[in-house]
Request: fold
Amino acid sequence: MTRQCQDKVALVTGGASGIGRASAVALAGAGATVMVADRNHDGCEETVELIRAAGGSAAVHAVDVASETEVERLVAETVATFGRLDLAFNNAGVGGTFAKTADYPSDDWDRVIAVNLTGVWYCMKHEIRYMLDHGGGAIVNTASVAGLVGMGAAPAYTAAKHGVVGLTRNAALEYARNGIRINAVCPGLVRTGMTEGAEAAMPGFFDRLAKQEPVGRVAEPEEIASAVVWLLSDGASYMTGHALAVDGGYVAR
Ligand SMILES: NC(=O)c1ccc[n+]([C@@H]2O[C@H](COP(=O)([O-])OP(=O)(O)OC[C@H]3O[C@@H](n4cnc5c(N)ncnc54)[C@H](O)[C@@H]3O)[C@@H](O)[C@H]2O)c1
Reply:
């Protein structure tokens, strides 16, 4: 049986950890060759080891997605290394401070917007430029349930993730006739480095939030990765401009 992403080349940002690592591993398992990109080089190496141990093919590229120059180099390096770019998962992100709008630190606002919103735009900009000249492709951006509804005490994160949903819909319309599909995935609460940091700072964080999830538990990164692989695969060939909640029912209320 042909695997979902057989013979494709995929780029994953935030691939050193959490949802990005699980997605890089899943994409490789689906037959893609994966460029694992992150500012955490050692974490990328660990992801690549996991992929190679399972018989897959991958390489590492260190990047700060908040730098357009570095993102442009990442796309060029992916093509130089693997000969093409078919699939991209723009997923790198940071959580930011928990504080209300009137108390939110301005430097934290700038950092969260730079990584979570501008970083996704830089990635899309350079991926789309390549895909336009090379027969199309598929892109998934990581938003969040915080891109669909307000969360409270997370103004920069919520604004950035709503922005990612908007960028996704806008670009999907622009390139729908160029063979480029662009969607977003909107995870609920997932057990990753980001949320384990919150649990360490506020013990009971997972238990409290799991109670608000209709399914009564948090997600594992692999549960998001399977949606990402599907959205990037030809199985989702009529999907574009969609923000897919993978959230245990959180926004269904
Ligand atoms: N964990 C959750 O509950 C949850 C829910 C919804 C959305 N998300 C989103 O999922 C994405 C992945 O987060 P995660 O939960 O796997 O967390 P994580 O901390 O495990 O992974 C995030 C990765 O992004 C990388 N990164 C951060 N800033 C970067 C930068 N400037 N350049 C390059 N890499 C950078 C980190 O090094 C890390 O490896 C993020 O966009 C996050 O906002 C997470």
Summary: The chain has one domain: 9-189+221-242. Helices lie at 18-29, 41-53, 68-82, 106-133, 155-175, 193-201, 205-212, 221-232. The two ends are 39 Å apart (CA to CA).
